[in-house]
Amino acid sequence: MIGGGYVGLVSAACFAEFGMHVSVVETNAERLAALREGRIPIYEPGLDTLVVSNSQAGRLVFGDDIASAVVGAEAVFIAVGTPPRNGDGAADLQYVHAAARQIAQALTGYAVIVTKSTVPVGSSRRIAEIIREARPDLDFDVASNPEFLREGSAIDDFMRPDRVIIGLDEAGKNGTARAENVMRRVYRPLAQSAAELVFTGLETAELTKYASNSFLAMKISFINEMADLCEKLGANVEGLARGMGLDTRIGQRFLNPGPGYGGSCFPKDTLALSRIAQESQSGCRLVETTVQVNEARKAAMAGRIIAACGGAVNGRTVAVLGLTFKPETDDMRESASIPILHRLAEAGAVLRAYDPVGMEAAKPLLPAQTIYCADAMDAAQGADVLVVLTEWNIFRALSPESLAQQMRAKVVVDLRNIFDPDAMRAAGFVYQSVGRP
Ligand code: NAI
């Protein structure tokens, strides 16, 4: 497993739990040192136990030497980052290509080189070219195996996925039988789950990942726009979402309005798909619009908070509950909290923030003057407005009366609809949520 980040580490730990021998290659010295000591550099529920037990059983090892890691490997997974390239939003493939070159130098026998990173269409063929150029003698196949796990429930998602997509080179001169056999064996432990193994060509597998993430991003943007409309028309987005979602063609999930999607995948993958479509002279206007709608939404949310304070936050104290892009993760990448807090800071607000696990990761990204608090009640101390940005479960049980006692003014802007409007009003709050009367 090349790369020991969210995807690499979770995949490696789960494969090891299935009884396979997995070597993780990680070049970040700090991350590697932590992993070797059994410390998990990211927050993901259940991952620490899985890593420690499989390391102790000798099935999961960590190192920085790719040559020793790939000895005898039948499958080598690439799970390095593919961040957006500065300037045009296309996926930056420098880490993937570097990994391919390193793998080429290190392999001593047949292996399937599997791309787990999210990569543009054509990347697996490019990886094959890179390896062939470096090692014309080498016997290998490439496969595209995009990962669909969600941070926060990554282990369960990996072990009980809805589907596993495996793209193979259908035009390969040796056919795909050998590579397919390796991939079937790798995923055989999932046979008891409902997971369907979908074999496709390389291009289809690569595009399926971007299409899936873009569709989900579009679904979120859709319900966000419906929430705005509900507010204008006196409708309730919760009833609307339930009414829509019970149609199995639509489905209940991903119909919760909020401050705009963030995270390490949706923003970058929607941008990358837009870019792929442009380069192919093919329209992808729905996805391009989704990107624009989401950017505009994040900006609008700061405006909503300022409006709730009567049009100005200069010198006012804003309590912020939740900073990560979603609960059960410490990932701050592209979190809506980043533009919102910067906008509030520029408008002169005093920011008192609390997040159960994301505060360390948040510090370099948020305004320098942000005050990090011990808990939610501490954040609410003396606040003129309390804003909910991430729906961590521990915020749901906060007592409105106790919050009211802590605050200077009783205003709540709940951008995740976690509180009961009637209970908040009964406690004397001016309470605003998203898409609810
Ligand atoms: P990450 O940034 O957490 O991890 C990547 C790791 O690879 C880093 O620890 C880095 O030091 C290491 N690395 C880079 N080059 C290396 C090399 N040549 N040799 C060894 N290690 C190397 O990234 P994350 O979030 O795990 O994402 C990886 C890929 O998976 C991306 O393409 C992403 O789009 C995709 N993905 C991410 C999901 C997520 O929820 N984070 C879900 C599904 C796909």
Automatic annotation (TrEMBL):
Catalyzed reactions: UDP-alpha-D-glucose + 2 NAD(+) + H2O = UDP-alpha-D-glucuronate + 2 NADH + 3 H(+)
Residue ranges constituting the UDP-glucose/GDP-mannose dehydrogenase C-terminal domain according to the UniProt record: 319-421
Pfam families linked to this entry: UDPG_MGDP_dh, UDPG_MGDP_dh_C, UDPG_MGDP_dh_N
Positions with a binding annotation for NAD(+): 31, 82, 118, 151, 268, 333
Catalytic residue positions: 265
Transmembrane segments: none
Keywords from the UniProt entry: NAD, Oxidoreductase
Keyword RNA-binding tagged: no
GO BP term (any one): UDP-glucuronate biosynthetic process
Alphabetized GO MF terms: NAD binding; UDP-glucose 6-dehydrogenase activity
EC number: 1.1.1.22
Residues at which substrate binds: 148-151, 209, 254-258, 262, 326
UniProt pathway annotation: Nucleotide-sugar biosynthesis; UDP-alpha-D-glucuronate biosynthesis; UDP-alpha-D-glucuronate from UDP-alpha-D-glucose: step 1/1
InterPro entries reported for this sequence: 6-PGluconate_DH-like_C_sf (IPR008927), NAD(P)-bd_dom_sf (IPR036291), UDP-Glc/GDP-Man (IPR017476), UDP-Glc/GDP-Man_DH_C (IPR014027), UDP-Glc/GDP-Man_DH_C_sf (IPR036220), UDP-Glc/GDP-Man_DH_dimer (IPR014026), UDP-Glc/GDP-Man_DH_N (IPR001732), UDPglc_DH_bac (IPR028357)
NCBIfam families: NDP-sugDHase
Protein name in the entry: UDP-glucose 6-dehydrogenase
Organism: Acetobacter vaccinii
